[in-house]
Specification:
The protein has 120 residues and is mainly β. The chain has a single domain (8-119), classed as Hotdog Thioesterase (Thiol Ester Dehydrase, Chain A), CATH 3.10.129. The chain has one helix and six strands; from the N terminus they run ββαββββ. 21% of the residues are buried.
């Protein structure tokens, strides 16, 4: 199931140096997933954050992407959906399969996630 369009939207994808991308996106605070995760204190599920990264990667490389190995995945803070949440995803792809990504909360400029993975 794709999350783009109902869980989040992409506003822009920009490129810097070769293999470096910045994605501006927004997570929707009214998505039904928050009724179960968690009803009294909603938090963006970690698996959804990884799915957003994977879907953005697919747009960048022009094909479906799979994480074949996640070498590091650190959640540094929670995303709380009190209103729609602007996020920035910084991605660096090396050797066409090695990935580094960070997710930053646009409301607080706080890093949310650091990821090192291999993709196919």
């Amino acid at each position: 199931m794709r999350l783009e369009g109902n869980f989040y939207t992409i506003h822009a994808i920009t490129t810097g140096n070769p293999g470096e991308y910045t994605i501006s996106a927004e997570l929707f605070a009214d998505h039904p997933i928050y009724k179960g995760h968690f009803p009294e204190q909603p938090v963006v599920p970690g698996v959804c954050t990884l799915t957003v990264i994977r879907e953005c990667l697919a747009k960048i490389v022009g094909r479906e992407v799979t994480f074949t190995a996640i070498k590091e995945c650190k959640y540094l803070s929670a995303l709380i959906p009190q209103s729609n949440i602007p996020i920035t995803i910084n991605i660096t792809i090396a050797d066409d399969s090695q990935l580094r990504a960070t997710v930053v909360n646009g409301n607080s400029s706080q890093s949310v996630l650091k990821l090192r993975a291999t993709i196919s």
